[in-house]
């Protein structure tokens, strides 16, 4: 299967209005509230990357990935069904809400709704404009999810969806890619479903630093200080966002060459920094996969 990229996320949060203010004032991310009440955040030329709806509690509604075109979506559907996975064809209403041509969905071994789609609307005639001074927004980098069924999840993503394993840590945290980006999704061994964080990619280290200073001075909870990861080399910080999960805000991630890259274990999470004042790292449990 030829999955091309992480396309979008759908997230339920208790207070969409609070999220809109936070995105505008702290993250520098523009958003538009639709007639359906959903807040859609723009991070690049696409119509949106993150859709937030109101609910009693926070949860990941869906994670969406791109395939190349309509024929590729048909092929992906056939491959999923051959693997014994029940595929649901999205309604026109769902496609319109995601601004895609067509989509299908299925449940992964953890119960997350995964969507495959093609043709999401690109608004190149309406360049994304940060809501405060930044050199630029560069998109949705990755998402990290808790996986109670870690082994089965990695098998699905690698053997059926065609992702490649980039690296892993202690066989409890796995980083997977579907293009040159070091990872588009990562899974941690947990005892329940958990949206840990998604990554907002910005243009420069100054954008990261300015946002870090602003968030700190405004009293927002920094869950990991400025630092640089050892595996993907991103310079970033983490902060708590409305709804209780986290956003990683960073720049400078590693691109991988499929022709030469070899999957491997890494032993330290960071080259420097990323101190966690609250001790709130990803909580992982021992697990094994092939």
Order of helices and strands: EHEEEEHEHEEEHEEEEHEEEEE
Number of strands: 18
- Computed CA radius of gyration, to the nearest angstrom: 18 Å
Which sequence of strands runs across the widest sheet?
17-10-11-12-9-13-16-15-14-18
The DSSP helix count reads: 5
The largest sheet, given as strand count, sense and whether it forms a barrel, is: 10 strands, mixed
- What gap, in angstroms, lies between the N and C termini? 20 Å
By oligomeric state, this entry counts as single chain
Q: Point out poorly predicted stretches.
A: 283-290
Q: Mean pLDDT across all residues, rounded?
A: 95
CATH class of the largest domain: Alpha Beta
Strand content: 35-45%
Helix content: 10-25%
Question: CATH H-level name of the largest domain... which superfamily?
Answer: 2,3-Dihydroxybiphenyl 1,2-Dioxygenase, domain 1
**What best-fitting shape do the alpha-carbon axes yield?**
globular
In CATH, the topology of the largest domain is named 2,3-Dihydroxybiphenyl 1,2-Dioxygenase, domain 1
Give the tally of structural domains: 2
Secondary-structure content class = alpha+beta
CATH architecture of the largest domain: Roll
Task: Note down, in words, how this protein is organized.
- With 290 residues, the chain is of the alpha+beta class.
- It folds into 2 domains: 3-118, 2,3-Dihydroxybiphenyl 1,2-Dioxygenase, domain 1; 137-273, Roll (2,3-Dihydroxybiphenyl 1,2-Dioxygenase, domain 1), CATH 3.10.180.10.
- The protein contains 5 helices and 18 strands.
- Strands 17-10-11-12-9-13-16-15-14-18 form a 10-stranded mixed sheet, with helices on one face. An 8-stranded mixed sheet has the order 2-3-4-1-5-8-7-6, with helices on both faces.
- Strand 14 (222-229) and strand 15 form a beta hairpin.
- It is globular and about 55 Å long.
- Mean pLDDT is 95; it is low at 283-290.
């Amino acid at each position: 299967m030829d999955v091309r990229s992480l396309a979008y996320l759908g997230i339920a949060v208790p207070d969409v209005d609070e999220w809109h203010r936070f995105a505008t004032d702290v993250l520098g991310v523009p958003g538009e509230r639709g007639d359906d009440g959903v807040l859609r955040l723009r991070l690049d030329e696409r119509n949106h990357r993150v859709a937030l709806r109101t609910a009693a509690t926070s949860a990941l509604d869906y994670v969406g990935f791109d395939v190349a075109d309509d024929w590729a979506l048909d092929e992906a559907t056939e491959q999923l069904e051959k693997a014994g996975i029940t595929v649901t064809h999205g309604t026109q209403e769902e496609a319109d809400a995601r601004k895609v041509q067509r989509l299908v969905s299925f449940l992964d071994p953890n119960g997350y709704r995964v969507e495959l789609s093609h043709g999401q609307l690109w608004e190149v005639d309406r360049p994304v404009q940060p809501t405060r001074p930044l050199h630029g927004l560069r998109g949705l980098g990755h998402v990290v999810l808790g996986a109670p069924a870690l082994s089965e999840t990695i098998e699905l993503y690698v053997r059926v969806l065609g992702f490649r394993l980039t690296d892993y840590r202690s066989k409890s945290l796995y980083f997977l890619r579907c293009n040159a980006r070091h990872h588009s999704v990562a899974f941690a061994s947990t005892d329940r479903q958990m949206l840990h964080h998604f990554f907002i990619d910005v243009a420069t280290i100054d954008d990261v630093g300015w946002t870090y200073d602003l968030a700190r001075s405004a009293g927002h909870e920094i869950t990991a200080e400025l630092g640089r990861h050892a595996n993907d080399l991103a310079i970033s910080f983490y902060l708590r966002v409305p709804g209780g999960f986290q956003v990683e805000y960073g720049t400078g991630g590693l691109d991988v060459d499929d022709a030469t890259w070899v999957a491997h274990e890494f032993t330290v999470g960071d080259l420097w920094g990323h101190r966690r004042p609250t001790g709130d790292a990803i909580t992982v449990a021992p697990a094994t996969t092939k």
